[in-house]
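User: Please predict the structure of the protein below. I'd like the answer in structure-token form so I can feed it into my own downstream comparison script.

Assistant: Understood. Taking the following sequence of 488 residues as input:
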Amino acid sequence: MRLTPHFPVRTVLAASFLFSWTVNAPAQIPQGSWEGVMGSGTHQFRVAFMLGEDQGEYHNIDDGIHGEPMTILRKGGQLRAQTEGGAELELSPSGDGKTLTGIFRQGAGQDSQQSLVGENQSYPVTLRPGEDYLHPRLLPDGGEQTRYHYAPPPPLSDGWAAGDLRHSHADLPQIEGVVQGILRGRFPYIHSLLVVQDGKLVLDEYFYGYGPDDPHPVMSVTKCVFSLLFGIGEGQGWVQPSRRLFNYFEDYRSRPGWDPAKDSITLGSLLTMTSGLGCDDFKDSGSCSWKMVSSPDWLDFSLSLPLQNQPGTHFAYCGACLTPLGVVLERQSGLGLVPYAQKFLFDPLGIKPPDWWEGPGGIRSPAFGLALKPRDMAKIGLLVLNEGAWNGKTVVPKTWIEECTVPRVRSDQTGNKADYGYLWWERDEFGLGKKVRVWDAWGVGGQHIFIVPAFNLVCVLTAGNYKDGALADNSFKIFHEVLEAFAQ
């Protein structure tokens, strides 16, 4: 999600577009590639249009829509688009023809429950000629780059020390082969690949128009970031996994239909996805977390979910169930979730205030919504690798790093070939036959912060494969090849 909602799968536009264009005669449809931004604030989407004589394509880079067919019609004096789901787009050219600007209107379409673009709302659109978003990487002459030779990360002012793979034991040709595979389309729609070893950034590569200064929706990686915030709060005495959820929301006990069995839900059962509440984003076709997004009161939606299993006994991956955790931390600490995160986590790591998608009433979900720069994601990974310390100072208590990475739900219950801790995934992986334990902050679409303590390694990937599970799995494949390169 740019729940960013970085969140669970996002669908903004559906099916095909019908376009008409009218400008002062004899203006023609500006054919070619146009790219830019749709939306504003935390609701921004990179979009691209291929406009031909009669047909075209629509791409939403941040939403995983690639090559949606378009039929182009000429009528009147404006460019209008209408989707089968009820969305409309209106564009006009600038005087010099170098930009297209207009408005996107989301209707109450068939995919509206899974859209980060609110129903019946309008968003600005600005496009410019270009096709950087449509190719892994373009050369200065406009051709596609297909060959890659390693170069150390450039020094930036974000606090990272750069390393050089040419002076390490890593299999450099294999690393070059991975990057070249992205450039040649073996791994489509990978947006970034970073590697940190021994505390230094040794690989920092970007694709499809992204760069080191561009935040990326991290989807459910937000959960792992919130886990660290919860650990900070535990260290400050504000929260504890053993505390009961409805002790913070006592008025629900007197409401009609109250189920006394919900009294046994603890904060820890929410952190392990074993609350027993009737929500399973992996199995529900409509995804109850997306139903929460379209509801007017996220907190009430979450607390009102019916109990389907005895708390602590059944794993069900539910982003909506985490909403009360953020509210509890806010109320106990006296700080909103965003300023709390900035003061106690992001500022110590030198991370500038990131976008965090805002719901009704200013609420933020602990489950999704963050947009982070990949280099900042790598800082989160290094912080966890260093047991909660940054530059020698404790940011997250070491005890919490140990607690959140302990397997609390085994893989035979999660159904994902991975164990689950306090909002962190973990599994055994093999590099050249060597078994190593890997911690994973995992977001839909191919977003990952992989942490390998045995190799003192962090690997970050971002991608746009939100709607294709097979393509999203390419992030795992890339990580495996990176892992083998460092297992020499």
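That's the full token string. Residues 192 and 206 are 4 Å apart (CA to CA).
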